[in-house]
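sanity check this record:

:::
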Amino acid sequence: MGAALQSDPEKATLVRQQYREILAPQIRSWSILSANYRTLGIFISALFKAPEYYFEFEIIGFSVALAVLIRRQNTAHEALLRRLHPPFSTGSVAGQAV
């Protein structure tokens, strides 16, 4: 993204707008890993008088959630990069890190 901002300063607002449109919803979805849901998990497992369920919820449930969030974040990031670097754009170098 830094390269896109530096390569054409006139389009910086457009780059920032696209970043917000594509990645902001993904970033907000990471709140599912917050302490609120962990506290809810502890409460539910205590309600059923089975605290061991909380650890299963923590290990399995949040690991799956984390994997899904990482995959969605990577997909959104790739979509942003595709928008910023349209195919056959001039001046692009193959294999250039962004």
User: Anything to note?
Assistant: The mean pLDDT is 84. DSSP finds four helices and no strands in the chain.
